[in-house]
Amino acid sequence: MRKLVQQLAIGVAVLAFATAVQAGETLDRVMGKKAMVVATNSGWPPQSYLDDNNEMVGFDIDVSKEIAKRLGVGVSFETPDWATLTGGRWQGRYDLGVGSVTPTKARAQVIDFAGIYYYSPYVYVLHKDSKAKSVTDLNGKIIGVETATTSEDFIRRQLEIDAPGLPPIEYKLEPGEIRTFADSMLPFDDLRLGDGVRLDAVIAPEQTALNAIKNGYPLRVIEREYAFKEPLAVIAEKADPDWTKKVGEIIDEMKEDGTLATLTTKWYGRDYSAD
């Protein structure tokens, strides 16, 4: 009996040790290597994209670099597909995800949310020649959204944002057809061809829509009509609560000292960081 008890005690101790080692795995790896690998997007201006010099730039890139700076480590970027970025089970390939990810109940099952770093209102985007003046004018029309995103969840009436204090989602639009696209800019490329040529409207983040318009796309948004307002979070793999907590503390510091306000204003022309 005593031997059995001793064996059980040893087993518990080993399990506890293994858990403790795992709990700090990402934090230990990043601080040990003095390097952090961030998963993000490569074609989503102004959040993150390749510039003319083939270098990653954008709001999410600046946020990543600032987090790395405050950790005292270098940073490099990987650009997996969206499902991989938000699907967790990274197996050490990435240390952090900075890709303007919305915290949802489904994603909370596979990834951790280190902290909300800004907010994005989603807008209804039209061709400039569209006669539509309100959301109801889009009922029965062809709506474009990026696939596997909150805009698709919204148009399919399946959106469940996992963040406190947000008002309930209101569904006012009854689409005639939903068309999905693998990239955030592809719906705009179809919409720019003309009103109703391929699409009647796109649902997308205000920041992305305004940036497209700034870059010459013949589009406009329905004024004072938002689909929903979403919080955007930095994400981490469900493997290291110490790492998630550390990054969350840095995000809080960046919000409190005005860094996030400065960065959102730099890239979007206004402060999207306020709670």
From TrEMBL:
SMART domains, sorted: PBPb
Residues making up the signal peptide according to the UniProt record: 1-23
The Solute-binding protein family 3/N-terminal domain, residue ranges: 35-271
Keywords in alphabetical order: Plasmid, Signal
Signal among keywords: yes
Cellular component, GO, one term: periplasmic space
Subcellular location: Periplasm
UniProt KW Signal keyword: yes
Protein name: Putative AMINO ACID-BINDING PERIPLASMIC ABC TRANSPORTER protein
Organism: Sinorhizobium sojae CCBAU 05684
